[in-house]
User: What shape does this take?
Amino acid sequence: MEVSRVENLPPPPGVISSIKAGFDTIATHITAILLPLLLNLFLWLGPRLRMDALFDLVKGDAVQIWKNGGVSAEDIQRVLTWYNATIPNLNLFWLLRTLPIGISSLLLPQQTSLTPLGNPSNLQVNAINLLGWMFLLTLIGWVGGGLYFRSVAWITTVNKDDQRMSISQAIVQTMLISIFWSILLMAIGVPVFLVLALVLQFSPFIANLLVLFVSLASMWVIVPLFFWPHGVFLKKQNVITSIISSVQMTRFTLPTSSMFVLAVFLLTFGLNFLWSIPPEDSWMTFIGILGHSFVATALLAGSFIYYRDMNNWLQTVIDKLRPNSVISKK
Assistant: This one.
């Protein structure tokens, strides 16, 4: 009898079916892509917020300090080459894309090029307002991210009669998750990076093995963090309850959930190369931005659907097996 009960359990939600359901949902609620579309258009056609002028002011002093410290000319030139290739292309408005909750955006590679509207205006930060700009942009990103996740989560909700999460609650929980997420990543990432750097000094082979081990073990951390916000926006849980719920789901569904997270990352990063093919001074870039906004929102909707269906499936399994355990104990 126990074997028949196990065999009659419903199959768990599939990775492909959840992603397909996300695309179907956004196709019927196309206005959900509005926030990422507007953010992408702003990052493409809007002004650039630079900090290369600030770096240029201190570059000479930094080079002199390196020379006095005994840094070789080759290493100094390597750093300057990286600086000339990277810093002028940085746009601090990218901070509007916050993690893990934020409005999805497409990072166009050449932010110094012309746009179809001409040469974009450049704003420069200084030592006085740099931190202010970073705080303001991060705060706006949190607010926008909370609203974005709230809207996508709502359209994936089956029972529309349930009370919708309030805007203030969505923003507050977004801030708390983002802060705790940053602290947790630093607490895990900094020690791991230091250990890898130390091992690399003694044996590159052992360091490569350690990187492989860390990559495999990281799924136990990445998957729960990936689904951390979902309990907040779908079940209106608080930050602590949501991460506990995510860890519990991952504990029983790690292989399938890992495949889902991997599929989302591969689709996101793979298609980002496609969206970035047109030059930024061509209106064809708008097609890439439109495609990115739709696919990113569809994948987010698919993750909410997967989380919802997987938790429902786990509850069904528990309910079907609970009477079994009681009988076996007797």
Summary: Residues 13-51+90-102+111-329 form one domain. Residues 316 and 322 are 10 Å apart (CA to CA). Strands lie at 48-50, 122-124.
